[in-house]
Amino acid sequence: MRLSSKVIANSALLFVTLIWGATFTLTKAALTVMPVFPYLAIRFLLATAAMTPFFIFNSERRHYLRNRRLWLIGMALGTMLFLGYALQTLGLQTIAPAVSAFLTGLSVVMVPLMAIYFLQQRPHVRTWLSAIIAVVGLGLLNGAVNWNYFPIGIIYTLACAVFWALQIVAVDKWALKYDSVALTAIELLMVTLLSFLISLLTGGEKFHNWLSPIIILAVIVNGLLGTALAYWAQLHFQRQTSASYVAIIFTMEPVFAALIAWVTLHETLSTVEVIGGLIIVFSMLMADTSGR
C-alpha cells in the first residue's frame, strides 16, 4: 500500500524529533567543556557549512541569492530560532531542567492559538484537546508538578516557548513556497552569526576548548544531524502537514530523550514519567484529524 505524503512527512518529522532526543546526552557533555553560546556558534557554523554547497553549487538555487524576500524570511526564522535557544539557556540559570522542559513544551498550545491570528486557521477541536493533553503528559514526564517559587527563569523560558511557536507558525505562513534548502541555509547562517556575536561580546577566549574530543563529536553529530538535516526536514516536510500537528510531534523530544537516557545511561523512569510519555504518544495520535 502506498503511503500518503502526509504520513511520510509526519514520519520524517518524528525521526527529526528522535534525533533531537538522541543528541541530548552529547550536548549535556559538551556544555561541561564549553559555554553555551560558543558551542552553539560552532554547531551552527558546521550546519551552515553542510547546507551551503547544496545552495551555492546548484544552478537552480543560485538565483535565490538575489531574492530579497527569501533572505528576509530566512533571517526572521533564524532570529526566532536563536532567541528560542538563548532564552531557554538564560532560563536554565535559575530554574530546574524539568520546569524548563515543561514551559518550553507550552509551545504546543501556543501554535494553534497563533495559527488563529497569523494563518486565519481555526484548529479542529481535537487539535485543541490533543495540545492540552500533550502539555499534561509533558509535565508528568518531566516531573514539573510542584512550583513553589516564580524566578525570572520562568519568564525567560515562557518567552522561549513563544519564539519557538512563532518559528513553527512562520514556516507555515512564509516559507512553504520557497526552496527548503536555500531557506534552511539562510536560517542557520543567521543563528550562526548571532551566536558568534554574543560569544564575542561575552568573551572570545571561550572558544579555546573547541578541539576537545567531546566538543568535536557533539558538534559533528548535532550540527549535521540535529541541525542541518533536522531544520531542512522541518522546512521541507512541514508543507505537507500542519503547524499544529508539527508542534504535537515535537513534544516527543523529551520522550525520546528519556528513553535513550534509560537505554544508554541506565537512568530509571518513574511510573509518573512513563505515564507522561504514553500520554504524549496518545496526544499525537489524537491530533491528526485528516483520517482514521
How does this structure look, described?
The protein has one domain. Helices cover 74% and strands 0% of the residues. The protein has 13 helices and no strands. Helix 1 crosses helix 12.
- Determine the mean pLDDT: 79
Counting helices, strands and paired strands, the structural category is mainly alpha
Helical coverage, percent range = over 70%
Taking all Cα atoms into account, the compactness measure Rg is: 19 Å
Give the CA-CA distance, first to last residue: 16 Å
What is the H/E order?
Answer: HHHHHHHHHHHHH
Seen as an oligomer or otherwise, the chain set is: single chain
What does the main sheet amount to?
none
What is the count of structural domains? 1
Q: Total helix count?
A: 13
The portion of residues forming beta strands comes to: under 5%
The gross shape turns out to be globular
Poorly predicted spans: none
Compute the number of strand runs: 0
Q: TL;DR of this structure?
A:
The protein has 292 residues and is mainly α. The chain has helices spanning 5-22, 24-30, 36-56, 68-91, 97-104, 107-118, 125-142, 152-175, 180-201, 213-237, 243-250, 252-264, 271-287.
SSE inventory with pairings:
Blueprint: H1 5-22, H2 24-30, H3 36-56, H4 68-91, H5 97-104, H6 107-118, H7 125-142, H8 152-175, H9 180-201, H10 213-237, H11 243-250, H12 252-264, H13 271-287
Helix pairs in contact: 1-10, 1-11, 1-12, 2-10, 3-9, 3-10, 4-8, 4-9, 5-7, 5-8, 6-8, 6-11, 7-11, 7-13, 8-11, 9-10, 11-13
